[in-house]
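Work Package 3 (structural annotation) set out to generate three-dimensional models for the target panel prioritized at the project kickoff. During this period the team completed the workflow that converts sequence records into C-alpha cells, so that structures can be stored uniformly alongside our sequence database. As a representative example, we reproduce one entry of 314 residues exactly as it appears in the project archive.
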Amino acid sequence: MENAIEIRNFTKLFGEFVAVNNVSFDVKKGEVFGFLGPNGSGKTTVIRMILGLLNPTSGSGHILGCDIAQDREKLRSRIGYMSQKFSLYEELTVEENLDFYGGIYCIPNNKLKEKKKEILIMADLKGREKMIVSNLSGGWKQRLALGCSIIHDPEILLLDEPTGGVDPIARRQFWDIIYNLSKQGVTILVTTHYMDEAEHCNSIGFLYYGNILSLDTPNNMKEKIIDGQIVEIKSDKTLKAIELLKKKDYVKDASVYGAGIHAMVEKNTELDDLVLYLNGNDAVVHSIRKVKPTLEDVFVFLVESEKRKNGVIK
C-alpha cells in the first residue's frame, strides 16, 4: 500500500534541549496511525513539523509525494488539522464557525452549503446551528472542531490529542467518526496518551521524551515485545503488595491496574510462590491469574527498558 506520510530522521532542538530525536515512520494511505506517549514526549512537535509550522533541525518528510519543506502551499489544501487546544471562535455560532473555515479554504457557496449539512449531521449538531459555541458541551465542541478541520475534504487529517477533557461516551462517538473517515480513504494521524484509544489505530508509535521506542500494530506489540508474562493480582493491600513485589528479583515491574495489580514477571514464575510470599507478608491475595499484556503493560516495559539502558534505574 502506498504511503501517504513518510518521515525520515526528524530531529528538533530548542537550544540544547532535544524535543524530537531522529524520528522516522511511515503512514499508509487510509490508515489510522497513532502516536502514543505521555505529555511532553514530543508528539505535538512532530505534528507541527509535518505541518510546516516548525522547521526540523534535521531530517526530511514527504506528504502525498510532496516535500514538506518545499511544497507547503501546495499541501495546505490537502491537509486538515485539529490542534490540541480548542481553536474555534467561542463567541460565534456553530454555523458562523463553519462559514469562517469554509471561507478560509475558498469553498464555493453551493458546495459549502452541502458540506455544512454533512458536518452538522456527523457532529450531531443539526438543529443547533445558531447556538453560541461557548454554550456547547465539550464533546460537541470537539466534534465541531473536527468538522471545521475536514470542511475542505482533506486527504490527510492530523489530530493532536482530540479527545482531551471529554467524557468516555463523547470519546467513543468521536472515534466512530474517525473510523468512518478512514473508511472513506482519509489518512489519519492522531496523538493521544489514552491507551484504550491506541487500540483503535491500525498501527502505533510509542514516543517517549522525543524517542520512538517501538513502531508496530497494537496486536504485534502486545504479543511480541514483553519479555516475560503479566500476572493480575488482587490483594487487600494493593500498595503494600506492589512494594513487596518490587523487592523480588523475578518481578520486573508492578503497578496499579484498575482495581488490582499488573505484575511483570519472568516466564517460569510460579503463581503459588507469589501467593505465599504476599500472604506471608500481610498482603492477602484474593485472586491471581496470568493475563495477556495490554498496551499499558507494553508501554511500561518499554519505558523501564529505556531507563535501564540510559542508567536511570538499575
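The CA atoms of residues 49 and 55 lie 6 Å apart.
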